[in-house]
Amino acid sequence: MDRRKALKNMGLALGYTVATPTLISIVQSCKEETVFEWTPDFFTKDQGIVLTKLVDIILPKTDTPSASETQVHLFIDRFADQVMKVDQQNFLKMTMGRFIEKALKDSGKENAADLTAEDLEPVLASALKVSKDDQANNFKAIKQYNEAIAEGKEPLLDDGVARFGFADKLRGLTIFGYKSSEYVGEEVLAYLPVPGQYIGCGDLQEFTGGKAWSL
Predict the structure, then answer these.
(1) Vertex 123 angle, CA 157 and 109, to 5°
(2) Is the dihedral angle over the CA atoms 19, 25, 31, 35 positive or is it negative?
(3) Which residues neighbour 90 within 8 Å (Cβ) at sequence distance 6 or greater?
(4) C-alpha–C-alpha distance, residues 163 and 198, integer Å
(5) Is 213 helix (H, G, I), strand (E, B) or coil?
(6) What is the C-alpha to C-alpha distance for residues 165 and 160, in angstroms, rounded to an integer?
(7) Helix (H/G/I), strand (E/B), else coil: 14
(8) Can you give the pLDDT of all 215 residues of the chain as single tens digits?
(9) Could you tell me if 178 and 214 are in contact, meaning their C-beta atoms sit under 8 angstroms apart?
(10) What CA dihedral angle connects 199, 202, 206 and 211, to 10 degrees?
(11) How many CB atoms lie within 10 A of CB 24?
């Protein structure tokens, strides 16, 4: 499988129909832009600051780069701006707003830009720490909410469900963006740009040293 097809399939797994050239251009533009020059296209400046901290909570720096070091926050911002449909964009903005409101309330701070990783981490952990039954109920509530919005109604969505919706989507997009980055694809995962001999059954440890394939 080539890189274009792999990226497209990753988008489909998240529920998006992604035009492959668009996705490739997003990944390429993120790689070429330095962090200090970044001005969000979709999020506000303060939301961009929060986003940067959140992706690093999800994928912190260890023996591999953190999410922000591979510019995942830029990727998510441009993915939201260029790939998501309007209803998806609106839902992302709404749920992120609910998430930030909770972090501000718990921390006693007034400005989102002042929130630290220590302020954000417990809110993220709480949003994602749900049972399988609660997770299923949350997805059902989100589906019903979006259907009602599509019908022109003004439904209500529980704050906890909204925070779950944001945290779950952010986690998926963070992993998606991280795996899509050139550094992770070529340096962290097993990378073979020109496939050689096909071996139908073999040991991953023997072939790649235990690494998953990047494509």
Answers:
(1) 100
(2) negative
(3) 149
(4) 45
(5) strand
(6) 9
(7) coil
(8) 444 454 445 454 555 555 545 544 555 555 555 555 678 999 999 999 999 999 999 999 988 899 999 899 999 999 999 999 999 999 999 999 999 999 999 999 999 999 999 999 999 999 999 999 999 999 999 999 999 999 999 999 999 999 999 999 999 999 989 888 655 555 554 444 545 555 556 555 565 555 554 44
(9) no
(10) 90
(11) 16
**How many residues are given for the chain?**
215
* Token digits of residue 162: 């909204």
Q: Kindly report the CA angle at 30 between 27 and 32, in degrees rounded to 5?
A: 110
Kindly report the backbone phi and psi dihedral angles of residue 205, in degrees, each rounded to the nearest multiple of 5, phi listed first.
-60, -40
Residue labelled with tokens 């501000």: 104
Residue 52 structure tokens: 């940067």
Max intra-chain CA distance, the chain: 60
Four-CA torsion 166, 167, 169, 174, nearest 10 degrees: 130
From 32, 38, 68, select the one nearest 52 (Cα to Cα): 68
B/e letters for 55-78, b = 16+ CB within 10 Å, e = fewer, are bbbbbeeeeebbbbebbbbbbbbb
Residue whose entry in the numeric block shows the structure tokens 């970044």 = 38
